[in-house]
């Protein structure tokens, strides 16, 4: 079944705990936490603070997306409270990728690798048997409220063909219309910021994205 992972990027920090509880009650499968360092992407987030609040607010899966230049060092403080940790292939050389995979395995965490819209899936192929999830960015990472880049759909299809059982997550510009396209292409975990948090009826929004 398709899972929905509301992304808490644009949520007011003071309301964060209640907002997370609200989307959990509305049916969220995961909470997606964007960690940005102002270097790998122009934007910065208070990732660790968000994660700690999320951990306090809920028991559901915490899905942490690192958009940082040095993911291996950066993620150390996050590991304990996370369930899935995703890092960008563009931010880690081959040795570092292997080290991160080993580190997360040893801690019993799920491992995700992400590609930006201009990165081809070829780079992921050597890792597909070692990781749990691929995160295909459907917008340039950094900001919510962008439009899905249609060329990214083909990458989802190719990955699904290569790995029928792999978790494929998509992130950026997901709404009722684009959800249909990415699901048809083979994505099974949909990150949604605007489409859930800015909706008047979050339960309905999550149900519609999922079905
Ligand atoms: C973008 C972030 C996304 C973003 C999605 O870099 O990784 O998680 O919050 O927001 P929407 O759903 O509004 O595109
Ligand atoms: Zn994200």
Give structural notes.
This protein is globular. The chain has 211 residues and is α/β, with parallel strands linked by helices. Helix 3 links the parallel strand 3 and strand 4. It has a single domain (3-210), classed as Aldolase class I (TIM Barrel, Alpha-Beta Barrel), CATH 3.20.20. 35% of the residues lie in helices and 20% in strands. Residues 7, 32, 34, 65, 171, 191 line the site of zinc ion. D-xylitol-5-phosphate (DX5) is lined by residues 7, 9, 32, 34, 65, 139, 141-146, 171-174, 191-195.
State the gist of this model:
The protein has helices spanning 16-25, 47-57, 71-75, 94-106, 152-162, 176-185, 194-197, 202-210; strands at 3-6, 30-36, 61-67, 84-88, 110-115, 133-137, 167-171, 189-192. By secondary structure, it is an alpha/beta fold. The chain is globular, with a radius of gyration of 16 Å.
Order of secondary-structure elements: EHEHEHEHEEHEHEHH
Structural class: alpha/beta
Q: Write down the Rg.
A: 16 Å
Tally of contiguous helical segments: 8
Number of strands: 8
| Ions and ligands | D-xylitol-5-phosphate, zinc ion
CATH homologous superfamily descriptor: Aldolase class I
| Percentage of residues in strands | 15-25%
* Low-pLDDT segments, ≥5 res: none
CATH architecture: Alpha-Beta Barrel
Largest beta-sheet details = 8 strands, parallel
Number of domains: 1
Helix share bin: 25-40%
Tell me the CATH topology.
TIM Barrel
Integer average pLDDT: 97
Q: What kind of oligomer do you see? A: single chain
- Biggest sheet strand line-up: 1-8-7-6-5-4-3-2
Sum up the overall morphology in one term: globular
Distance between the termini: 9 Å
Highest-level CATH class? Alpha Beta
